[in-house]
Design goal:
49% of the residues lie in helices and 17% in strands. The chain contains nine helices and seven strands. With 259 residues, the chain is an alpha/beta fold. The protein starts with a strand and ends with a helix. The protein is elongated, with a radius of gyration of 32 Å. A five-stranded mixed beta sheet has the order 5-4-3-6-7.
Length: 259
């Protein structure tokens, strides 16, 4: 493994840099600008150390370097030098800069931005309502919220594994946010399930925030969340699942109609 010795290995005067450091930094910045313009320039002591280390690199690392342009390698070299020097000065260390880190950072940047540009791809996923397992009843619920008048629509439907409609509901209610409406829709469905004695049940919603509030500790909407948890316990803790809006469309239309 190659190391560049003598770079940032001595603590300098001042917290970050002294006069010599500022002049060296100005020269490095000038070299960087000349590099971007494709002009030749003297490497200087630090750049020459990097160049000599590259020449002495193993063949494998030289092949990696050949795939990275110098305009990419140079700024990563300066950045790593600057970080290593500041780290040594602040912590009073004498660590050397490893060439391997500079090479890998430069090559990784080249690989992800130049050699393999990202192409946006569209993946079609079929989304539909999935019937519950044998002997189970599925509740799909949804809430619709209007910020204009603080009115929410609550909707839901119970179906069995034969896709038979058992019971549905929709009603309007006051709410303060979309997640509040989603919780009210779930609570209404749980109350109906308790009344109908639907014990073997699955629950499906298109709101992932409902999962976080039900299964994680939170002070938000604590009264509704506690009531939902209690009803779920009485119903032998039914499974709570997520489905996309397209798979929860019947409950969504119920909620829309109520709002």
């Amino acid at each position: 493994m190659q190391q560049i010795k003598g770079i940032g290995s001595k603590r300098r005067k001042g917290i970050f840099c002294d006069k010599d450091d500022r002049e060296s930094g100005a020269r490095s910045l000038g070299c960087f600008r000349e590099t971007l313009r494709g002009e030749r320039y003297p490497l200087g002591e630090q750049g020459e150390a990097i160049s000599n280390a590259v020449v002495r690199s193993p063949p494998g690392e030289q092949r990696i370097l050949s795939s990275a342009a110098w305009t990419t390698l140079f700024p990563f070299s300066i950045w790593k030098l600057w970080k290593n020097r500041n780290h040594n000065n602040i912590n009073n260390l004498e660590n050397y800069l490893e060439l391997r880190n500079v090479i890998h950072a430069s090559w990784e940047f080249t690989f992800f931005t130049e050699r393999n540009p990202f192409v946006e791809k569209t993946i079609n996923v079929e989304i539909s309502w999935n019937k519950p397992t044998n002997g189970m009843i599925k509740l799909n619920c949804d809430g619709d919220f209007s910020s204009n008048n603080r009115i929410s629509g609550l909707g839901g439907v119970f179906r069995n594994n034969k896709e038979d409609w058992l019971v549905g509901y929709h009603k309007s209610s006051q709410a303060i946010s979309p997640i509040h409406a989603e919780l009210l829709a779930l609570l209404e469905g749980l109350k109906i399930a308790k009344k109908m004695n639907f014990l073997n049940m699955e629950i499906e919603t298109d709101c992932t925030d409902v999962f976080k509030l039900i299964y994680e500790d939170s002070t938000n909407y604590s009264n509704i969340v506690s009531e939902c948890r209690w009803l779920m316990h009485q119903l032998k803790i039914p499974q709570l699942k997520h489905n996309f809006r397209e798979g929860n469309m019947v409950a969504h239309l119920q909620a829309k109609q109520a709002a």
